[in-house]
Each structure stands twice: as structure tokens, then as C-alpha cells.
């Protein structure tokens, strides 16, 4: 059965590491849709923001850039993707992503099947009440 989610006032979380400062809004994960076979969210990277190098052994991941530009290094190969571009990262590929520009970057991320990351972020990242307007 189809489900509609009205995404107007979703919670915003901020990565606690100041050098990796980034924001996340989780749209589909086990806390929202317990039987989902994927998870999805929007990540906002201010200039210089980055994630840690990591790998999803069992999940494919896509990034779809909504605004700005990302640099993602996947298995040692650099990819630069901009607004409207999609990067497909296969399960088992080591990757790290950052925003090397002076502009805010937003991208939609999806994992199939679900990964533990979103649940962990909800537990360990503080909720953010005042997010700069330019971040969205």
C-alpha cells in the first residue's frame, strides 16, 4: 500500500564534528517506515564539509545533487557531480564525499537495502533548531 509523507517540518540533525560540519534530514528510515527496504534523506554540506571515508558492504547508494557540487572519491577515483547529476555507488565500494566549493551543497541520498547509518545519526547527532537559511 502506498504511503504519503508530508515533509514540511522534518527534524534537522547536525554532525557533531566541527571539521566535518554537515546537516541531515531523514525522510525514510526504520524509525519512519519500519518495513522499508531502502532509506533516504537530504544532506546539506556547507563549504568544506565532508563525511568520513566509509563503505556499505551490503547496500548500494545513490547521491542526487539538488544544489551545488560534490566531490566523491570512490575506490580511489574522483567524481565531481553538480546539480541534476546522480552518482551510483555500488555495495562494497569505499567512498568519501566533500563539498570543495564556496557554496552550500544539498543532495538526496538513498541506500538499498537500509543501512544502520541513519539510525546511528539520529542517536548521535544533535537536533538543530536554528539552521542558516542558505543551508536550505
What does this protein look like?
- With 136 residues, the chain is mostly beta strands.
- It has 1 helix and 9 strands.
- The strands form 2 sheets. Strands 1-2-3-9-4-7 form a 6-stranded antiparallel beta sheet, covered by helices on one side. The chain has a 3-stranded antiparallel beta sheet with strand order 6-5-8, with no helix packed on it.
- The longest helix is centred in the C-terminal third of the chain and has 8 residues, at 117-124.
- The radius of gyration is 14 Å and the shape is globular.
- The termini are far apart.
- The mean pLDDT is 87.
Pattern of helices and strands = EEEEEEEEEH
Q: In which range does the helix fraction lie?
A: under 10%
Coarse structural class: mainly beta
State the low-pLDDT regions, or none: none
Q: What is the number of helical segments per DSSP (H or I, 4+ residues)? A: 1
Number of strands: 9
What is the end-to-end distance?
31 Å
| Rg (C-alpha, Å) | 14 Å
Strands of the widest sheet, in order across it, are 1-2-3-9-4-7
Overall spatial form: globular
Strand content: 35-45%
Quote the average pLDDT: 87
Major sheet summary line: 6 strands, antiparallel
Amino acid at each position: 500500500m502506498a504511503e504519503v509523507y508530508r515533509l514540511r517540518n522534518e527534524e534537522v540533525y547536525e554532525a557533531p564534528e566541527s571539521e566535518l560540519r554537515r546537516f541531515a534530514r531523514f525522510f525514510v528510515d526504520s524509525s519512519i517506515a519500519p518495513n522499508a527496504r531502502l532509506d533516504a534523506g537530504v544532506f546539506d554540506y556547507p563549504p568544506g564539509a565532508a563525511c568520513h571515508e566509509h563503505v556499505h558492504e551490503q547496500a548500494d547508494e545513490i547521491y542526487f545533487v539538488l544544489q551545488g557540487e560534490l566531490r566523491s572519491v570512490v575506490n580511489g577515483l574522483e567524481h565531481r557531480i553538480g546539480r541534476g547529476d546522480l552518482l551510483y555507488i555500488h555495495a562494497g565500494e569505499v567512498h568519501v564525499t566533500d563539498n570543495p566549493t564556496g557554496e552550500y551543497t544539498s543532495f538526496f541520498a538513498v541506500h538499498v537495502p537500509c543501512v544502520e547509518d541513519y539510525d546511528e545519526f539520529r542517536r548521535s547527532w544533535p537536533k538543530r533548531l536554528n539552521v542558516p537559511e542558505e543551508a536550505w
